[in-house]
Amino acid sequence: MAKTSKLQKIINIKNKKASFEFEFIDKYVAGIVLKGTEIKSLREGKASLTEAFCFFRNGELFIRQMHIAPYSFAASYNHDPVRERKLLLNKRELDKLESKFQEKGLTIIPVRLFINDKGLAKIEIALGRGKKIHDKRQDIKNKDAKRDLDRMAY
């Protein structure tokens, strides 16, 4: 029998505002505990990380305010769009992240949500420090300079 190749849609949802608002120190890739309709909605690409943030409760890492739209084909067993979801990391990574998280001015930000080769939903989180206004201005200047150089290349 011939193998049929599945046409797999690449899901890569980014938090574009995060790189502008924060400077990243460390990055980690974590799994997410999801319900059935949540993963189906993610595969359609209906999620938003803009308002999301991570926090610790009883030594476990959770994400709050990540919006996953309700699955359109679910009848009555749909999920809450902005419920707290548990993130899955190694114990060593959790301990390291929690100790750094206790420092003043550091926060954990979701950067990217994607589905890996095995079909599992993963989230890339970053330990970051908020940027000051002059840092943001410098980023804008660098972006404008890069855009001008790209225009001159053509």
UniProtKB/TrEMBL annotation:
GO terms for cellular component: cytosol. One of its GO terms (biological process) is trans-translation. This is SsrA-binding protein. Belongs to the SmpB family. CDD domains: SmpB. NCBIfam families: PRK05422.1 (NF003843), smpB (TIGR00086). Keywords: Cytoplasm, RNA-binding. InterPro entries: SmpB, SsrA-bd_prot, SsrA-bd_prot_CS. The lineage of its organism: Bacteria, Pseudomonadati, Bacteroidota, Cytophagia, Cytophagales. It holds the Pfam family SmpB. It comes from the Bacteria. Gene3D superfamilies: 2.40.280.10. Its main location: cytoplasm. One of its GO terms (molecular function) is RNA binding. Required for rescue of stalled ribosomes mediated by trans-translation. Binds to transfer-messenger RNA (tmRNA), required for stable association of tmRNA with ribosomes. tmRNA and SmpB together mimic tRNA shape, replacing the anticodon stem-loop with SmpB. tmRNA is encoded by the ssrA gene; the 2 termini fold to resemble tRNA(Ala) and it encodes a 'tag peptide', a short internal open reading frame. During trans-translation Ala-aminoacylated tmRNA acts like a tRNA, entering the A-site of stalled ribosomes, displacing the stalled mRNA. It is found in: Cytoplasm.
